[in-house]
Amino acid sequence: MKLRGWMLALAGLGAASATAAAQDVKSPSVDQYVPRLGDIMSAAQRRHHKLWLAGKAQNWDLAAYELGQLKASLVEAALLYSGIPVSNVTTLEAPLQSASAAIAAKDGRKLANALGELTEGCNACHRSMNRSFVVMKVPTDQGLFGNQEFAPKPRP
Ligand code: HEC
C-alpha cells in the first residue's frame, strides 16, 4: 500500500482527529510552523502513556480519544518527515488496529497486548534510525515518563 493510502486507511479507523490532522498537515508552506520530529514524538509519548492509563482505568471514551491522538502524531511524523522509512510506520498498523478493536470491545487485556506490540514497533523504528537509546516501554506507573526506559543498556 502506498503511504498516502495507508494514512487514509489509518485515519479512517474511527478517529476523526486523525483525519483532521492528516488534512491539516498535507502541504505545509514555509511560513507555517512545522513541528520538529522530536516534538511530534514527545506528543506521541504522552499519548502512548495516556492511552495506557485510560485503558487501565477502563475509561474507553478517553482511550479511544488518546488512540486517535497518537495515530495523528504518527501520521504527522510520516507526512512531514520524508526521511522516515515508510515500512517502519506501516508495521504499526496491526497493533493500532488491535488497540482500536480492544477499546471497542472494552477489553483491557487485549489493549495491554496491543500496546506491547505497538511499543515494540516504536522501538524498532528508533533502533533503525540510530535512536536505539530512546527506549519506550509499556508503562509501569503513572509517574511522568513512566513509559520510557532511562537506564543505559549494557554495550555488547
Ligand atoms: C517511523 C519511525 C518512528 C516511529 C514508528 C516512532 N518513532 Fe519515536 N522517534 C523517531 C525518531 C527518528 C526520533 C528522533 C527525533 C529527533 O532526534 O529529533 C524519535 C524520538 C522519540 C522520542 C524522544 C523525543 C525527545 O525529544 O526526547 C520519544 C519519546 C519517542 N520517539 C516516542 C515514540 C513513541 C511512543 C512511539 C510509538 C508510539 C514512537 N516514538 C514511534 C522515530 C520513530
Automatic annotation (TrEMBL):
Signal sequence extent: 1-20
Lineage top rank: taxon: Bacteria
Keywords from the UniProt entry: Signal
Protein name in the entry: Cytochrome C
Lineage of the organism: Bacteria, Pseudomonadati, Pseudomonadota, Alphaproteobacteria, Hyphomicrobiales
